[in-house]
Amino acid sequence: MGCGVFYDTRQPADLSAGARLLGGDFAPVDLLATRMIRPPRLLVPALPFLALVILPGCAAAEELGPPDLPTDRALRAGFLLVEGVYNTELMAPWDVFQHVQYHSAPHPGIEVFSVAASLDPVTTAEGLRILPDYTFDTAPELDILVVPSARNSRGTDRQNRPMIDWVQQAGRAADFVVSLCWGAFVLAEAGLLDDHACTTFPQDFRSFVEAFPDLDLRVNVSFVHDGAVLTSQGGARSYEVAMYLVDLLFGQEVARSIGAGLLIEWPPSPENRMPFVSDPRMPRGLLLPNP
Whole-prediction pTM value? Predict the structure, then answer.
């Protein structure tokens, strides 16, 4: 795999522009930066399966090894629950991860559970009442931390120090951290997006840059995978990043089987997929390699 080409955008980025998939061809992705100005960034051409690739550098591409994932138990995926969490960003990845157990034999799949400040019911933005499984004090160590968007993710949740401290601690111990939509604001506040490319809800690109001017925000892509961190635009695209992580962990056949049950095309055909950013330093099928 080559190191790709440099795409230099020193002028203010046009947020309406960016990558568009047309018959398998891709335009460059505009890279939103501090005050809309970014030094040169590295992009590489499209791969047959992956829409876009982020490659921090040739040397770094050989330095990132696969995580040490357990094979004798289910992976633990903990979902952060806060008041006003949005149904879609919570349930889309939950749905995908929960189905892994039915397709991943001999591996036991993924155990999904919720974690909140207390065991009191949490009411979602749409009115569902959910009983948390664990508190910040009782949750087991996670393999996957999932931070969905919530009504106050951009505001008061960022000042919730017990919650931010738990996200920081759990995220640093986890093998993967996933955010959906405004969940990126929480990860950024916890310092988990430092030195990682990321994305968030499209209508809040500017507010994200204003809040975290030193972070590397990518625009016009469904999700970004950079090392241990995956960030998604959210909404219905929350399914895409979850399916991608299942493919990364368990291989394409497991992801395809889950997609068949959920009526999600996987891998998505070129005409039906939005570009995303992937990290080629990590092979697919970490637990169940493709035959």
Answer: 0.81
The candidate with the shortest Cα–Cα distance to 92, out of 284, 244, 241, 277, is: 241
Q: Each residue of 164-222: pLDDT tens digit?
A: 999 999 999 999 999 999 999 999 999 999 999 999 999 999 999 999 999 999 998 99
Q: Where are the domains of the chain?
A: 75-268
Q: CB burial class (10 A; 0-12, 13-18, 19+) of residue 107?
A: buried
CA-to-CA dists, residue 199 to 52, 61, 149, 220, 263, angstroms: 14, 21, 13, 9, 26
CB 143 within 8 A of CB 102: no
CB 254, CB 262: distance < 8 Å: no
Spatial separation of the C-alpha atoms in residues 8 and 127, rounded to whole Å = 45
Q: Which CATH number fits domain 75-268: 3.50.50.60, 3.60.40.10, 3.40.50.880, 3.40.190.10?
A: 3.40.50.880
